[in-house]
Recover the amino acids of this structure.
């Protein structure tokens, strides 16, 4: 919602709470506004109506969490919906092409699970386990309302092969979901992974070289 819609929102909240015989204090208005202003006014208004019609808890005045759940769905539902999008891309795009989803959390979670190529290479019988892992990780971020650093896109087999062979050519990723949102994810993504990954061969070689220099006297000994 825009800042100039606060008055309209205050009227909406006052009417909604009056339905339950409750008054709206300045504190209540501030809490609801700060929590819901990221949504469109039409969606917020509809959520209040849906809450009132909810046979499970519509007889009680809504809290912020009730309205957010009406707009976004539960975090469990969000995780399941995100996985459905990933699973569809696995079947239609495959592991060789790079992909960019319209949700940055999908990038973050798949990176934690080993990357796009590894996920697509999973055996069919392993996918239900991958689904549960993905949904739990995704749900955890949603519960904490946290968006960690994420890559602009998920690298497929073709680009991975190019990098291993020393080629700088990048393949254009396939946009999954809303193309405008996927392009925004690519724009806001960071090139460096959240975790630093070092080739063990390089690490061992560096350690051997350091020890060799130390024994030759090229490097001062460490203080005791």
């Amino acid at each position: 919602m825009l800042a100039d819609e606060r008055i309209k929102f205050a009227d909406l909240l006052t009417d909604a709470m009056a339905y339950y015989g409750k008054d709206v204090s300045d504190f209540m208005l501030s809490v609801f506004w700060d929590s819901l202003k990221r949504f469109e006014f039409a969606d917020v208004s509809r959520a209040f109506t849906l809450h009132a019609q909810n046979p499970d808890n519509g007889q009680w005045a809504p809290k912020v969490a009730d309205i957010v759940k009406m707009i976004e769905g539960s975090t469990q539902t969000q995780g399941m919906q995100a996985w459905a999008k990933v699973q569809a891309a696995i079947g239609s795009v495959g592991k060789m092409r790079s992909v960019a989803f319209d949700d940055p959390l999908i990038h973050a979670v798949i990176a934690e699970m080993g990357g796009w190529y590894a996920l697509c290479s999973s055996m069919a019988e392993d996918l239900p386990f991958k689904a549960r892992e993905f949904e739990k990780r995704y749900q955890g971020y949603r519960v904490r309302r946290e968006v960690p650093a994420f890559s602009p896109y998920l690298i497929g087999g073709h680009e991975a092969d190019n990098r291993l062979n020393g080629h700088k050519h990048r393949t254009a990723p396939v946009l999954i979901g809303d193309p405008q949102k996927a392009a925004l994810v690519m724009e806001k993504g960071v090139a460096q992974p959240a975790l630093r990954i070092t080739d063990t061969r390089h690490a061992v070689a560096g350690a051997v070289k350091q020890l060799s220099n130390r024994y030759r006297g090229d490097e001062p000994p460490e203080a005791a």
Remarks:
- The radius of gyration is 25 Å.
